[in-house]
Design a protein that fits this description.
Helix content is 9%, strand content 60%. It has 178 residues and is mostly beta strands. Strands 6-5-4-3-2-1-13-12-11-10-9-8-7 form a 13-stranded antiparallel sheet, covered by helices on one side.
Length: 178
């Protein structure tokens, strides 16, 4: 059934913890298999739209639009790579390698340099956390508040730690699949 998901729209309320204090944001993330990503962010200082087709992209903020820098393009590719509903199908993707990583974990890599460690709860078989390298060190996404959405179990709370410090709590407001 996961293979039937071709696109997703995920609305999120985010509490970000930048160095200067907590900031609230709203984001809507659109994913279209295999590589298209669009993110609309509403932050206290304005709206930003990010788009990538996996090969190139752009960022629009206010009245200005610029080409996506290589580091941001890699980050967008990583967000698509780490989508749980597609990550779970990695064993079917010839461009990905899947291997056991500890008692309850799986390591997934691809040819472009993306790599994650996915830890799974042995009782529920649901992902507990996802670990990968980010711009400021190791990133850990922890998943909670699993609910049914169109016949799939998806997390409605994602806590992100970067470099050992909590950097964000994402509360999913809505998932729309296909």
């Amino acid at each position: 059934r996961l293979a039937t998901i071709r696109d997703a729209d995920v609305k999120v309320a985010a509490a970000l913890n930048p160095a200067g204090g907590q900031m609230k944001a709203k984001e809507e993330n659109f994913f279209l298999a295999p590589q298209v990503f669009r993110q609309e962010l509403e932050m206290p200082f304005g709206k930003q739209v990010v788009f990538s087709d996996g090969k190139a992209g752009w960022i629009a903020s206010g009245k200005s639009t610029m080409a996506m820098p290589p580091a941001v393009l890699q980050q967008a590719r990583g967000q698509v790579f780490r989508q749980l509903f597609w990550l779970a199908l990695s064993d079917r993707n010839p461009e990905r390698e899947v291997s056991a990583d500890g008692d309850s974990g799986v390591r997934i890599t691809d040819g472009s340099g993306e790599a994650v460690h996915l830890e799974v709860d042995s009782k529920t078989s649901l992902p507990v956390k996802l670990t990968y390298s980010g711009g400021s060190g190791e990133v850990v996404e922890s998943y909670a508040d699993w609910r049914d959405v169109q016949g799939f179990r998806l997390p409605f709370e994602i806590t992100i730690h970067q470099g050992g410090k909590q950097s964000a709590i994402l509360r999913v407001l809505d998932y729309r699949l296909n």
